[in-house]
Amino acid sequence: MELRTLLSSLALIIMSTGIVSTSNAQQASKKEIARLNTADMNLSRAEVSYKKELDLLVFEMRVEGTAGNTTPEPAGQMNGAPVLGYVFPTTLSPEDVGFGSVEGILAFAVTSHPDFDDTPLWDENNDRNYENDGSTFHTHWVVLEENEHIPGGLAVKEFRKENQSVVLPPTNPGMPMYLDSPGFSVVFRNHTLKVAVPAQRVNSETSFNYDGVAAYMEVSTNSNQPMLGVYTVYEVLSGDLTLPYSVQQQ
């Protein structure tokens, strides 16, 4: 499916499901999902700028509350494990960050999920334990695709473990889906979060479009549900997921 067609379809799903939605497959209660929808997830701006002198892309989001201050409570198991995210859907190609040629929307996500750690190469909370950082907001590249089985309409694209043709970046955490853990540091300052990404890490692509999304996601171990899906979209900055924003050249 072409990116424009996929985005149009997803926009219709998001607008029809509303801000908070529930599903029989969803493990978290409506109350818990609503609790996470704080001013800390209320987006007021998303910006990506290219700092030519440093050859850096800076991804930035501004919220009404305190960026990164709201995190999910652990579910105590993988099925239904909550994931809270600030997400930049982009027009970058999955190949630009080290995935193989695969269809879908490449998104840059800053997430918190206390039930598991999927960044084995990085120690985000600096306690010298590389396996306990899931709740600390950290970065991922993900390839998203449309999924009609969940109310948010999006899921991280999966593959069969035995498929030897799949190409992933070397920093992937070893899960059978198009997910990478690149290790970029997240800087929180009051209303803003910023992440500096060397342009070389996105194939030196410095002109692309993007959007800003705040979302609640869940892990599922059920065979008829995606492994990691978007169950509630709190906000789409553009209002219709058209990815209207472009990189500011500085």
Describe the structure.
The protein is mostly beta strands and 250 residues long. Helix content is 9%, strand content 32%. It has two helices and 14 strands. The strands form three sheets. Strands 3-4-5-6-12-11 form a six-stranded antiparallel beta barrel. Strands 8-9-2-1-14 form a five-stranded mixed beta sheet, with no helix packed on it. Strands 10-13 form a two-stranded antiparallel ribbon. The protein starts with a helix and ends with a strand. The model is unreliable at 16-24 (pLDDT under 50).
Could you tell me how far the N terminus lies from the C terminus, measured between alpha carbons in angstroms? 34 Å
Order of H and E elements: HHEEEEEEEEEEEEEE
Quaternary structure type? single chain
Question: Spans with pLDDT under 50 lasting ≥5 residues?
Answer: 16-24
* Largest sheet: number of strands, sense, barrel closure: 6 strands, antiparallel, barrel
Number of DSSP strand runs: 14
* Shape, principal axes of CA atoms: globular
The chain-level mean pLDDT equals: 90
Number of separate helices: 2
Which percent range fits the helix content?
under 10%
Provide the β-strand percentage band.
25-35%
Instruction: Give me the secondary-structure category.
Output: mainly beta
User: Strand sequence of the main sheet, in spatial order?
Assistant: 3-4-5-6-12-11
Rounded radius of gyration (Å): 17 Å
